[in-house]
Amino acid sequence: MTFPTTFPEPELFTPGADAPALRWGLLAPGWIADLFVSAVHAHTDQRFVAVASRSAERSRAFSAQHGIAKAYDSYEQLVADPEVDVVYIAAPQSEHLALGLLAVAAGKHTLIEKPLATTSDEARVLVSAARSAGVLMMEALWSRYLPQTSVVRALVRDGVLGDIRSVVADHGQAIPDYPNHRLHRRELGGGALLDLGIYPVQLDSMVLGAPSSITAIGGLLDTGVDAYSTLVLGHGPSVQSTLTTTLVVRTPSTAVIAGTEARLEMAGSFYMPTTLRLTANDGEALVWNDTTGVSSMAGLSWEATALARFVREGRTESPVHTLDETISILETLDEARRQIDDAATR
Question: What count of other Cβ atoms lies within 10 Å of the Cβ of residue 89?
Answer without folding.
Answer: 24
